Amino acid sequence: MRPARFEEQFKKLTEIGSVARGKSKHRPRNDPALYGGAYPFIQTGDVKHSNFYLAAYSQTYNEKGLAQSKLWQPGTLCITIAANIADTAILKIPACFPDSIIGFTAKPEVSDVRFVKYCLDSYKGQMQAISQGTTQDNMSLEKLLSIRFRVPSYDTQKKIAAILSAYDDLIENNRRRIALLEKMAKEIYREWFVRMRFPGHEQAKFEKGVPVGWVELASSEVFDVLSGGTPKTDVSAYWDGQIPFFTPKDAGDNFYALDTEKHITANGLKSCNSRLYPKETIFITARGTVGKLALANREMAMNQSCYALAPKMAGPVFFHFMTIKGAINYLKGVSKSGIFDNIIVDTFKTVPILMPCEEQIVSFNKVVGPVFQQILGLMETNALLAKKRDVFLPRLISGKLPVEDLDIRFPPSMAEETAHEA
Prior knowledge:
With 422 residues, this protein is an alpha+beta fold. The protein folds into 3 domains: 4-151, Adenine-n6-DNA-methyltransferase TaqI, Chain A, domain 2; 152-209 and 358-422, no CATH class; 215-355, DNA methylase specificity domains (Adenine-n6-DNA-methyltransferase TaqI, Chain A, domain 2), CATH 3.90.220.20. The chain has helices spanning 4-7, 13-16, 44-49, 63-67, 113-122, 124-129, 141-146, 154-193, 219-222, 266-271, 318-326, 328-334, 358-398, 415-421, and strands at residues 10-11, 17-21, 35-40, 53-54, 60-61, 77-80, 88-91, 101-106, 149-150, 206-207, 210-211, 215-218, 223-226, 239-246, 256-257, 262-264, 282-285, 293-296, 301-302, 306-311, 352-355. The strands form 7 sheets. Strands 2-8-6-7-4 form a 5-stranded mixed sheet. Strands 13-20-17-18-15 form a 5-stranded mixed sheet. A 3-stranded mixed sheet has the order 16-14-19. β10 and β11 (210-211) form a beta hairpin. The protein starts with a helix and ends with a helix.
């Protein structure tokens, strides 16, 4: 039997802070009159795609939108209860959000909002389980407030949050570095192939604004456009293997896809229309979210909602990746011919690409190759940091690993060794 002191550590969110649903009373919610102002409007997808703190958003409210909503302050913990269940992020900016997001504000000297976020992350599976059973999974505020979470003393919360947030702070710093490096690669591409200020451009001859020797080709002439397929989902022998299975869900915001949400077996690969695509294959999403790109960091299979683009020119793919990335807006425009946004094979026959001389392509690849390698290295470091953090998370939150057994001064790179010794 557990001691009373241990049981007393289990509390509802309302005992350690204030909780309320977001506000978006206007109907219809997509009324254009509400949007386009100065007030960030956070949605469930923004919470899902944030790391720890939330400062990025894709929509804003104007004064009319704000009037039927509420401006939450930095430090508010956002908890999704519809669409994406139990995703969390801490606001870094003042923002509005709808009633599909719960806002939690910590009581001073009672709860540390960072600890509460980690606590909810460790209970995510339980919260998702109680949200199932309807046409669309959702978690009511009543259900959320019925859950008791293990909440130790305020000092212990701060110590646990300090250990875990050391990883997330490093991850966030690396994300900023990745964003700068990706911006650098885009700027180099624009400088060389859009502004035409490539090395030696002063001596180059131009005709109608295009260097002599450059040619305009259809994308289908530059790439082999390859399809994918999905093994039967009701055959267990096809799934949970070692082969990454790329789908639109795996197309993130960065250049590379390190791994995938789902994996298939060798028999699963044989049973479907996908081949095993090599490292640095360019994947492009063709349905739903159209035109998201990712470079495969390892061999991967692919489903039918994407295409694999294999450059017909041998060598590094950096130029070709940046070229098709530059054509995305055009691709998105021509993909909207049907009821659903989509790209078909023939779409690539209509997307023009200005191809420079091979010498310039080779030179560009040499210049940006190290930039791509730094991006990949930082993404791999972040994956390792997240893995190490996730080793600590459930043990610290559950109390199985007392925080007193850890030296919180250790560098995060030593965390795994320290946990093993503990």
